[in-house]
């Protein structure tokens, strides 16, 4: 059954599909990705065993065209698709600047992806089967503990920090403290040697250091590696450790190709976003 135009509940047009193709690599944790579509933007979420959750938020300003059909209770439009199938569709064209049109008409229909190339008259269309999904932890909607430590760094400095430590061990320990050593990463290597990286709070690699209490926790290095996959896109990174041990890595991603005529001021919950529309990739990792 083909959807009618009046059946469409979500439609969007995105230029420069290269970004989406590459950033989805950072979400390859589980098989399915959950879409939550609202008037303000789209959130893509994956979760593994309630141990790690990654979500990519793309504000509506990033899209050349953006439509969400209003509903009575203003609830988001939610559905899930297979992540491998989605990334496979995005690789069907090698034209990084092609136009991607996304159409979703509700639970009875698949999600449609249509590609229009910039250098030819060739168009490609694919359909992805949608499915229901189990509820996620939705960290981005929960109230986080008040007590926490937070470090704000540029994306390049954050990438350099984790490149200097061996991530092959099973666990990495993170220490944030108002006293020395301030910010310390530790990992026990395969030969039982301990590798550490220490950063002073006065280091020029740190934009903001807000650590009123000492918090130390250990995390699986495989979960940390997920968060490092897209640091080449990162403008700013906020690393937050809550007193419960929950780790949040919030990566701000700027977009040089957004429609400037629709720009607005967009802020993340931790106020790390500059003026203009920015995507945010968040990781929540349990100890």
Care to describe what's here?
The strands form 3 sheets. The chain has a 9-stranded antiparallel β-sheet. About 6% of the residues have low confidence. The radius of gyration is 20 Å and the shape is elongated. It is 10% helix and 41% strand. The chain contains 4 helices and 18 strands. It folds into 2 domains: 127 residues, DNA Polymerase III, Chain A, domain 2, CATH 3.10.150; 126 residues, Proliferating Cell Nuclear Antigen. Keywords: DNA damage, DNA repair, Nucleus. Belongs to the rad1 family.
**CATH homology group of the largest domain:** DNA Polymerase III, subunit A, domain 2
Shape: elongated
Determine the structural class based on helices, strands and strand pairing: mainly beta
Largest sheet: 9 strands, antiparallel
Going by CATH, the architecture of the largest domain would be Roll
GO cellular component, one term: checkpoint clamp complex
Family: Belongs to the rad1 family.
Protein name: Putative checkpoint 9-1-1 complex rad1 component
Subcellular location: Nucleus
């Amino acid at each position: 059954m083909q959807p009618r135009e009046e059946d469409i509940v979500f439609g969007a047009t995105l230029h420069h599909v290269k970004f989406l193709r590459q950033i989805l690599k950072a979400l390859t944790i589980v098989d399915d990705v959950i879409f939550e579509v609202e008037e303000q933007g789209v959130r893509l979420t994956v979760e593994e065993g309630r141990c790690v959750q990654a979500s990519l938020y793309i504000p509506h300003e990033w899209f050349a065209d953006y439509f969400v059909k209003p509903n009575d209770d203003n609830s988001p439009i939610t559905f899930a698709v297979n992540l491998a199938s989605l990334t496979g569709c995005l690789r069907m064209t090698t034209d990084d600047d092609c136009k991607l049109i996304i159409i979703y008409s509700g639970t009875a229909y698949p999600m449609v992806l249509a590609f229009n190339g910039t250098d030819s008259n060739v168009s490609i269309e694919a359909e992805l089967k949608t499915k229901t999904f189990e509820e996620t932890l939705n960290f981005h909607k929960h109230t986080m503990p008040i007590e926490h430590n937070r470090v704000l760094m540029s994306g390049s400095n954050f990438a350099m920090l984790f490149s200097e430590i061996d991530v092959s061990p099973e666990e990495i320990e993170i220490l944030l403290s108002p006293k020395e050593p301030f910010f310390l990463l530790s990992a026990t290597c395969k030969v039982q040697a301990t590798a550490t990286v220490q950063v002073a709070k006065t280091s020029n690699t740190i934009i903001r250091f807000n650590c009123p209490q000492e918090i130390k926790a250990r995390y699986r290095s495989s979960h940390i590696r997920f968060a490092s996959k897209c640091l080449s896109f990162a403008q700013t990174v906020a690393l937050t450790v809550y007193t419960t041990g929950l780790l949040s890595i919030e990566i701000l991603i700027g977009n040089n190709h957004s429609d400037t005529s629709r720009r607005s001021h967009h802020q993340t919950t931790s106020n790390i976003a500059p003026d203009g529309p920015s995507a945010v990739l968040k990781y929540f990792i349990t100890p």
